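Morning - FE2/S2 (inorganic) cluster inputs below, output right after.
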Amino acid sequence: MTDELSSNEASDRGERMPRRVFFKAGAGLVAAGYAGGIGYPIYRYLATPAQRAAELGAITEMTIPADKMPAVGTALQFLFGNRPTILIHLEDESLVCLDAVCTHLGCTVQFQPDKKIIHCACHGGTYDMHTGKNIAGPPPKPLKQYQVETTPDGQVRISRA
Ligand code: FES
């Protein structure tokens, strides 16, 4: 009887050990799953803006489809990577592409076709629409100019060095 009991205890112990290990491993996996489920979205939330800005800032070339080409005397405002940008279709049919971030304190500038200038509403800065040169107000430097090339099929290719 004692031998039988002790062998049952041994077999019980033998079964319990693998179960304990199994449950500990299972609990570890569940904990890791919860940590990943909570941690990954937090990581994405915190890391994405910086990563995304770096990725967008690294874009050096883009193409504007022919159907988005602004009419003569008007401008198209768009994002070149993460930078506000203006493509102006001048009256002589040439194209000028300028960074649209004011060199004073960083507001986004606007093309004013009636006055034929680029204007910053924040502090009244004014830029020449042909060159991006700062001509009035507080901006200390001209707007950065990008290279523009028109393809035979009417697309506009913009690039920055
Ligand atoms: Fe444009 Fe000040 S931010 S003039």
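Note: The helical segments are 2-57.

O.
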